[in-house]
Amino acid sequence: MSNNFAAIADRLKFNEQGLIPAIAQQHDSGEVLMMAWMNRDAVIETLSTGRVCYFSRSRGKLWRKGESSGQEQHLVDFRYDCDQDTVLVQVDQKGVACHTGRRNCFYLAVRDGAETIIAEPEVSVETLYGAKH
């Protein structure tokens, strides 16, 4: 682990649960893919390995994007905002980013006052995770 990566993680302002919001954006198109949470260890692992790692609140552990689906995110650029309380990871997304099989997680929109699905799955959940998911 690089001391620089630990020092960068120490600059970030994590919430009371030790988490910071992380927005994933496709590096070349600017498409916003998803939002997840990182803890200090996830930040350091992401910077150290170049493979994006988050903290799963439901599982209570580190979650390496694509470890069960193969839909990996490779880090291109790691940024944080002026308040150091939000992270932007610009990534090269392999496959789809959303666990529903869609390219990104922002497929619900309000159109004419109603919730509207604006993107259909590109791959089935069964294909991503197997029949048990």
TrEMBL record:
User: What reaction does this enzyme carry out catalytically?
Assistant: 1-(5-phospho-beta-D-ribosyl)-ATP + H2O = 1-(5-phospho-beta-D-ribosyl)-5'-AMP + diphosphate + H(+); 1-(5-phospho-beta-D-ribosyl)-5'-AMP + H2O = 1-(5-phospho-beta-D-ribosyl)-5-[(5-phospho-beta-D-ribosylamino)methylideneamino]imidazole-4-carboxamide
E.C. numbers: 3.5.4.19
Write the record's keywords in alphabetical order, separated by commas: Amino-acid biosynthesis, Cytoplasm, Histidine biosynthesis, Hydrolase, Magnesium, Metal-binding, Zinc
Known pathway: Amino-acid biosynthesis; L-histidine biosynthesis; L-histidine from 5-phospho-alpha-D-ribose 1-diphosphate: step 3/9; Amino-acid biosynthesis; L-histidine biosynthesis; L-histidine from 5-phospho-alpha-D-ribose 1-diphosphate: step 2/9
Residues binding Zn(2+), per UniProt: 82, 98, 105
Question: Which sites bind Mg(2+)?
Answer: 81, 83, 85
The record's Gene Ontology biological-process terms are: L-histidine biosynthetic process
Residue ranges constituting the Phosphoribosyl-AMP cyclohydrolase domain according to the UniProt record: 34-107
Q: Which domain of life is it from?
A: Bacteria
What subcellular compartments does it reside in? Cytoplasm
Q: Name one GO cellular component term.
A: cytoplasm
The keyword Acyltransferase belongs to this UniProt entry's keyword annotation: no
- Cofactor dependence: Mg(2+); Zn(2+)
The free-text note explaining how the cofactor binds reads: Binds 1 Mg(2+) ion per subunit.
The molecular function terms in GO held by this entry are:
magnesium ion binding; phosphoribosyl-AMP cyclohydrolase activity; phosphoribosyl-ATP diphosphatase activity; zinc ion binding
Query: Quaternary state and partners of this protein?
Result: Homodimer.
| Summary of the function given for this chain in its UniProt record | Catalyzes the hydrolysis of the adenine ring of phosphoribosyl-AMP.
The entry assigns this protein to a family as follows: Belongs to the PRA-CH family. In the C-terminal section; belongs to the PRA-PH family.
Query: This protein is called what?
Result: Phosphoribosyl-AMP cyclohydrolase
To which species is this protein native?
A: Thalassospira marina
The top of its lineage is:
Bacteria, Pseudomonadati, Pseudomonadota, Alphaproteobacteria, Rhodospirillales
